[in-house]
Each structure stands twice: as structure tokens, then as C-alpha cells.
């Protein structure tokens, strides 16, 4: 396939990185949509189902930093190819579950298989995009991630209704294998090594990498632990995923069991907030790159949007939990999750700014904290609902953590890369 000069990086993003992330997201989201059906079929309690749904996050979070290191050592091409094969096969193995323990085991292995996906993808985008285009490049990655819940909601609900929940896992896993083959065949770790790239595009990418004089040394992670920014970018992501975990884990169950929607109605309505998030990440990426171009300030392009996104996400979630109107509830859930997109674009652009040659390490560290929240949040919500008998306490509680996340961005300075990661102290 011959590409127009100067556009190959966008083909890499839209034809490979975005679609792979999309199918990966389908693999994650299918079991969330299928959760009410699986609970009924196997007679699982709410807490038991929460353990199944979050077991993915245990291993995924634990292996983020090693996966980021491996992506840097072996390159995103090899790291993502092997990870993709592993998680696709494990997705197809999900219907083999027959008990809480077996489902937990399969989902935990799936988390291990997917652990290299995000560090490898963020590292690939950093290598293939100049700094002034990274926010839009990250939007493609995030768009693929959030297109998954949009498609998985109605599609999985229909498959369950007509074919059974097992078929969704077989088909999503097989599609992942095909995309993994395409990734290995077409992607290259360095733009200049790709046989179809032009010299002008190589020059454009390499001229704005901003770290030509920075030498990466061993032990970057351990030195990073002494940096306030290293901790702030990670902990704020923990708070963000506490908010987002409600949508990724419990929204279908909430809509059916609390708001009394039918399976078909749930499938459509559970996808709507993800539509808002999908649209917002592209808007946020465009805004961030425009702000960077207009002001020349990396701080202005990252921090204000992240703080606003946190606060709007918190407010929308509180209002949605308090209203009796289904229309207003869904509107505010869309506003809340849409605002998360402002934060997400800022986060992954900031990890590239802060990490430079250690981007894989910073990404893995940040994603480790976020996916720890992916486990803690749903389980904590399940227990809060059980203890209080209502979701009206659980949702405002996680909204409060979103406000704390906004404050943490005052400690993040993406215009100042973390020198400790390059071995020069902090």
C-alpha cells in the first residue's frame, strides 16, 4: 500500500493503533455488558461479580511498570504484537469459566496479557508524532479505547439476546488476532525504518522530538520515585479512574437494577456516555494542540483542561445520582464522562512531556495507579451499596475524589520534564 508523502504517521494511528485499542476495549467491555446475564446464569452475588469484573485490573496494574520497561527495551512493535496475541486468545477462553474462581483466573490472565498495550501504544505515538501533534495523536488512541464501549454495549446486548453471551468473546478475540498480524506486518519502531515513509515526514517527526541531547540511563523508575511530579501524575490518574470505573464496570448493572431499564434499553443507554467521551477526546486533542501552538506553553495546553475536566466530571456524576428524571440522568452522565476526555488527553500528553526517553516508564507507572483504581473503585462501590442500600452514597463519594484529582494537577508541570528519569536528579 503506497501512502501520500507526509501522512504515514496518521495511517499508523488510524489504521493500526486506534483499531487495535478498539478491539482491546471490546474484549474488556464485553464482560461488563454480559455481567447481569452471567450473574443470573451462575447465581453470582454483586460482590462476587465485582471480584470477577475487577480481577483483570489486579494483574494489569501490577505489570504496568515492567511492561513499560519491556516496551522500551524491545520496542513497541514486538511488545504489542505478543500482548495482542495473548489477550485475544484469552478473550476467546473466557466462556470456559464456570465458577467465581475460574472466571477470576481467566480475567487475571487477560489483564497480564493486556499489560503492555498502553505503554507500547503511547511509546509508539511518541516516536511517530512530533510534540506539536501529540495531543491529536493521543486522541486517536483514546478514541479507539472509548469506541469499544460504544460498540460493545448495543452489539453485545444483541448477541446475548440472539446467540448467547459466549459468542461475543469468540468473535472479539478472533478479530484481535487478525489485527495483531496487521500490526506486526506494517508497523516499525522507528519512522525512518519504515519502507514507505518519505524523507520529509521523517524530518518533520525528528525535528520536534525535543530530547535529542537527553541520554536515557538505567534505573529511571527508581529515580523517578523521588519526584513530586512522578507521584502527582500517577495519583491523579488513580482518582480519575475511580470516576471512570463506575462507567466501565457498573453502569449496565445500575441502569437495569436501579433505573429498571430493559436489556435492550440498557445496551443503548450504557453506550451514550461513551459516545460523549469518544467525541470529546478528539475535541480535547484539537484544543490542546491549538493552545500549544498559540501560546507556546505546554502547561497551558495540559493543566487547565485537566482541572476543568475533573470538576465537571464530579458535578455531573452528583447531579445524575440525585435526579429522578431518566433524561436528565443520562444527560448528566454524558456530561460527566465527556469531561473525563479533557483529563485523559492531558494525562497522556503530559506523560510524554515528563518522561521523554523514559515515556514507557512514566506511562506504565501512571497506568499502574489508574488500573489499581479500576480494581479498588468497583469493589468499594459494591460494598458501599451493600452497606447503605443505595447508590446515592457511592457516586458522590467518588465524585469527591475527582475534586482531589483537580488539585493534584497544580503539582504537575509538563513544561519541566523530570530530570531524574535521565539520571540528573530532580
Report on this model:
It is globular, with a radius of gyration of 21 Å. It has a single domain, classed as Up-down Bundle (Growth Hormone, Chain: A). The longest helix is centred in the first third of the chain and has 35 residues, at 8-42. With 426 residues, the protein is mostly helical. The chain has helices at 8-42, 46-62, 64-74, 76-93, 100-114, 117-128, 134-162, 165-186, 199-207, 220-224, 228-257, 263-269, 272-295, 298-322, 326-355, 359-388, 391-408.
Helix-and-strand structural type: mainly alpha
CATH architecture designation? Up-down Bundle
Weakly predicted, low-confidence segments: 1-5
Number of domains: 1
How would you sum up this structure in a few lines?
This protein is mainly α and 426 residues long.
Task: Indicate the topology.
Elements: H1 8-42, H2 46-62, H3 64-74, H4 76-93, H5 100-114, H6 117-128, H7 134-162, H8 165-186, H9 199-207, H10 220-224, H11 228-257, H12 263-269, H13 272-295, H14 298-322, H15 326-355, H16 359-388, H17 391-408
Helix pairs in contact: 1-2, 1-6, 1-7, 1-8, 1-11, 2-5, 2-16, 3-4, 3-6, 3-16, 4-5, 4-6, 4-8, 6-7, 6-16, 7-8, 7-12, 7-13, 7-15, 11-15, 11-16, 11-17, 13-14, 13-15, 14-15, 14-17, 15-16, 16-17
Keywords:
Growth Hormone, Chain: A, 426 residues, disordered N terminus, 17 helices, mainly alpha, globular, 79% helix
Amino acid at each position: 500500500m503506497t501512502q501520500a508523502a507526509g501522512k504515514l504517521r496518521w495511517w499508523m494511528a488510524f489504521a493500526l493503533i486506534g483499531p487495535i485499542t478498539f478491539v482491546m476495549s471490546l474484549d474488556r467491555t464485553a464482560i461488563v455488558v454480559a455481567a447481569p446475564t452471567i450473574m443470573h446464569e451462575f447465581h453470582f452475588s454483586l460482590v462476587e461479580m465485582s471480584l470477577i469484573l475487577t480481577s483483570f485490573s489486579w494483574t494489569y496494574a501490577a505489570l504496568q511498570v515492567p511492561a513499560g520497561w519491556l516496551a522500551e527495551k524491545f520496542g513497541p512493535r514486538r511488545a504489542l504484537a505478543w500482548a495482542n496475541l495473548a489477550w485475544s486468545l484469552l478473550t476467546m477462553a473466557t466462556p470456559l469459566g464456570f465458577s467465581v474462581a475460574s472466571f477470576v483466573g481467566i480475567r487475571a490472565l487477560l489483564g497480564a496479557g493486556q499489560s503492555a498495550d498502553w505503554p507500547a501504544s503511547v511509546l509508539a505515538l511518541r516516536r511517530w508524532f512530533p510534540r506539536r501533534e501529540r495531543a491529536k495523536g493521543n486522541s486517536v488512541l483514546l478514541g479507539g479505547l472509548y469506541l469499544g464501549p460504544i460498540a460493545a454495549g448495543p452489539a453485545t446486548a444483541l448477541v446475548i439476546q440472539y446467540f448467547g453471551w459466549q459468542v461475543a468473546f469468540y468473535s472479539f478475540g478472533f478479530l484481535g488476532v487478525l489485527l495483531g498480524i496487521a500490526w506486526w506486518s506494517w508497523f516499525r519502531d522507528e519512522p525512518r525504518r519504515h519502507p514507505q515513509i518519505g524523507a520529509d515526514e521523517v524530518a518533520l517527526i525528528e525535528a520536534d522530538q525535543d530530547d535529542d541531547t537527553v541520554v536515557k540511563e538505567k534505573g529511571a523508575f527508581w529515580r523517578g520515585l523521588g519526584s513530586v511530579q512522578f507521584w502527582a501524575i500517577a495519583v491523579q490518574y488513580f482518582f480519575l479512574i475511580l470516576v471512570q470505573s463506575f462507567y466501565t464496570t457498573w453502569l449496565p448493572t445500575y441502569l437495569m437494577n436501579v433505573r429498571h431499564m430493559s436489556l435492550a434499553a440498557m445496551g443503548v443507554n450504557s453506550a451514550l456516555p461513551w459516545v460523549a467521551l469518544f467525541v470529546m477526546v478528539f475535541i480535547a486533542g484539537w484544543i490542546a494542540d491549538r493552545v500549544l501552538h498559540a501560546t507556546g506553553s505546554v502547561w497551558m495546553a495540559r493543566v487547565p483542561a485537566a482541572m476543568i475536566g475533573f470538576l465537571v466530571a464530579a458535578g455531573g456524576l452528583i447531579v445524575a445520582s440525585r435526579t429522578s428524571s431518566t433524561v436528565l440522568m443520562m444527560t448528566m452522565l454524558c456530561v460527566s464522562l465527556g469531561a473525563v476526555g479533557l483529563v485523559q488527553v492531558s494525562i497522556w500528553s503530559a506523560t510524554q512531556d515528563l518522561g521523554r526517553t523514559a515515556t514507557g516508564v512514566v506511562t506504565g507507572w501512571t497506568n499502574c495507579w489508574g488500573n489499581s483504581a479500576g480494581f479498588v473503585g468497583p469493589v468499594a462501590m459494591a460494598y458501599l451499596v451493600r452497606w447503605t442500600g443505595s447508590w446515592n452514597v457511592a457516586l458522590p463519594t467518588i465524585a469527591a475524589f475527582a475534586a482531589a484529582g483537580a488539585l493534584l494537577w497544580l503539582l504537575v508541570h509538563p513544561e519541566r520534564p523530570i530530570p531524574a528519569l535521565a539520571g540528573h536528579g530532580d
